[in-house]
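Is flavin mononucleotide placement plausible here? Inputs below.
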Amino acid sequence: MIFAAGKIGTLSLPNRLVRSATAERMADADGRPTPQLLSLYQGLASGGVGLIITGHMYVHPSGKASPEMTGIHSDELIPALAELTAAVHCKGGHIVAQLNHGGMQCSPEAVTGTLAPSAIAAPFLRQPAREITVSEINDLIQAFSQAARRAREAGFDGVQIHGAHGYLISQFLSPFSNHRSDEWGGELQARTRFLRAVCQAIREQVGPRYPVLIKLGVRDGIAGGLTAEEGLSVVAELESMGLDAVEVSGGIGGVRNLNVRPNIRAGVDEAYFRPLAHQARKVTRLPILLVGGLRSRRMMEDVLASGDADFVSLSRPLLCEPDLPKRMLLDLQEQSSCISANRCWVDRQGEGIACKCRIGVAHRKARRKGSVSS
Ligand SMILES: Cc1cc2nc3c(=O)[nH]c(=O)nc-3n(C[C@H](O)[C@H](O)[C@H](O)COP(=O)(O)O)c2cc1C
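Reply from A.M.:
I modeled the complex. Tokens:
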């Protein structure tokens, strides 16, 4: 089933493998993509993944999470972004832009003084955030919709709203970070208002046929955070918000253990958000993308065959081996060589993400072929 064609709204895809958004940190100070980023996307497209979702892109300067985050906040970036999409399309690939505002999780190197639904300081935040004003809320709703328009103009095949991992949209959804007493906070319906407004504003800009996806944090996994029950109620509403697909995720970025779990072993602790996807399937007719610890072809097939998800998304495995989809198609490889050591994060500002276990991977592959002794 992995290599069966699939559809997300009006977007036809050649297979069910998705590159989940992965912040590459390969843009210049203005948010302009570097040649390094272009070549990373070309490598993914040549490697056979059906859909590439970009690393998160900031829709407004106040939402820049890291100094090298890609921008989509200004019309000036459209030509450079168009070069990216053209590079992917000429390799036969498809690419969707992930739209984000970092809110309270923006690093001090990128933004001085962060915004959140309510003023907040927490051990995993690098700087305290102040409460966003209603006028700023309205500006940011427009910023998301203008970013979606730019994505369409730059040739992206769709957009994905980042509604997970403790960034601004998930901060609004979560009672951990949203203590507002006005119409933007309180009960779940009010905490969902910001997401609803963003979806509506995006649809007004891009029209009814342009693919709009969401990555949703269905549960925060921290004390006082969004529960799975609440997250699933949001999932149930997504179709009426005009969205075309949901990627099921969870956790808070600064607390990486739930979202980007370490040491995943194929066949043992794979697909850690599958139970949430299974529940989500009961409350939505939208296509579901499942991310989180998918490592073996057997597990991917099982997830798809069970109907728990329609697409499987991979982040770290495609950083490790961008050609994994092609190798699986050709029966050259049954599982990812990624050992989820979580060494792909940027250690030094300006270096961009990379799989630092690659040398180990090459060694293991050679050993399997018998050319290297252990
Ligand atoms: C280096 C790195 C950067 C990431 N950046 C993003 C991002 O920009 N947006 C996002 O939604 N998720 C991001 N994630 C999370 C992944 O998309 C994915 O949800 C998570 O890594 C689990 O999938 P995996 O086991 O296939 O890696 C990132 C993960 C890593 C390791």
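Short version: Confidence is low (pLDDT under 50) at residues 370-374.
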